[in-house]
Structures are given as C-alpha cells and as structure tokens.
C-alpha cells in the first residue's frame, strides 16, 4: 500500500507531539487520521475497470497468450469455440494472461478488445476470446494477426 509509509510517519509524529506537549488526546485523533488516510489511499489507487469487467493488475499493459506458432484455420477456431460452448463457456477460444511456455504467442488485451469480446472465465489467468458464431474467415484472420501469426 503506497500510504503505509505516510501512515507510519503520521503515527510517529502523533506520538512525538503527544510526548513533547504532554497532550492527553487519546487515540481518537490518530484513529480518525488513519481511517482518513486509508479511505483517500483506496480511492486514489483504485484502477479503472476495462471492457472485460475485470481490473487490470496495475498500470502495466496486460497481454493475452495463445499457444502455438502456426496460423489457426477458421475450421480449427470454430471447432474449439463449439467445444467451449459444450463446456458451458462462451463461443470462443482460450487464452491466458500469463505464460512461461516458449510456444506462446501474445497479443495486447486492449488490442484484442477492439475486435473481440474478452471474458474472464473462472480458472486463474484464463480468458475466453469470444468469436462470431459461426467463425468467419475475416474473424479467423484478424484473430491470427492479433497474435502475430502469419500464413
């Protein structure tokens, strides 16, 4: 928390002033100051909610990762989207917000959201990129280009 240091300084200042001046203020002014700092700190440090409905980790750019280097055909994306629907997920394909795999291609979450709806789907770091039903050649091509794939 960015205000933790300020909170400690405020508490020390309060204790020093109380000792030097012999004030018997009790802890109410300190408690009020702490609550005020916590409220101001939480309002000032809250992050904006994106189009996905979830808060980004911080101000850093968020990426989505999709495994494999090869261009994915419309048919392959459609088959995976249909399998997702059978599992109760949106018509789309899986991506992750973290990956250490060497075969992971990445795309900026913000760029993907320009063209597709991105939904946080339960499992840690798992997102579904929703595709049109049925998947069109144009959507498949755009999806592949976003993830840096070439034919």
Describe the structure.
By secondary structure, the protein is of the alpha+beta class. The protein folds into two domains: 4-45; 63-146, no CATH class. 44% of the residues lie in helices and 15% in strands. It contains five helices and five strands. The strands form two sheets. The protein has a three-stranded antiparallel β-sheet with strand order 2-5-4. The chain has a two-stranded antiparallel ribbon with strand order 1-3. Strand 4 and strand 5 (126-130) form a beta hairpin. Helix 1 (4-21) packs antiparallel against helix 2 (28-45). It is elongated. Mean pLDDT is 80; it is low at 42-53.
Give a brief description.
The protein has 151 residues and is an alpha+beta fold.
What descriptive keywords fit this protein?
elongated, 44% helix, 151 residues, 3-stranded antiparallel beta sheet, two-stranded antiparallel ribbon, alpha+beta, 2 domains
Given the helix and strand composition, which structural class is it?
alpha+beta
So how many helices? Answer: 5
* Spatial extent as radius of gyration: 24 Å
Helix content: 40-55%
Q: Order of SSEs, N→C?
A: HHEHEEHEEH
Q: How many domain units?
A: 2
Distance between the termini: 47 Å
Structure summary, number of beta strands: 5
State which percent range the strand residues make up: 15-25%
């Amino acid at each position: 928390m960015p205000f933790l240091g300020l909170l400690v300084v405020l508490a020390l200042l309060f204790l020093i002033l109380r000792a030097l001046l012999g004030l018997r203020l009790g802890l109410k002014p300190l408690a009020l100051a702490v609550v005020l700092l916590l409220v101001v700190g939480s309002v000032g440090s809250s992050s904006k909610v994106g189009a996905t409905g979830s808060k980004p980790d911080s101000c850093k750019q968020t990426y989505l990762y999709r495994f494999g280097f090869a261009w994915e055909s419309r048919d392959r994306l459609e088959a995976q989207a249909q399998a997702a629907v059978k599992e109760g997920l949106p018509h789309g394909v899986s991506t992750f917000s973290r990956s250490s795999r060497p075969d992971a291609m990445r795309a900026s979450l913000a760029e993907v959201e320009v063209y597709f709806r991105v939904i946080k789907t339960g499992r840690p770091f798992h997102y579904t990129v929703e595709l049109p039903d049925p998947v069109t050649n144009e959507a498949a091509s755009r999806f592949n280009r976003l993830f840096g794939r070439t034919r």
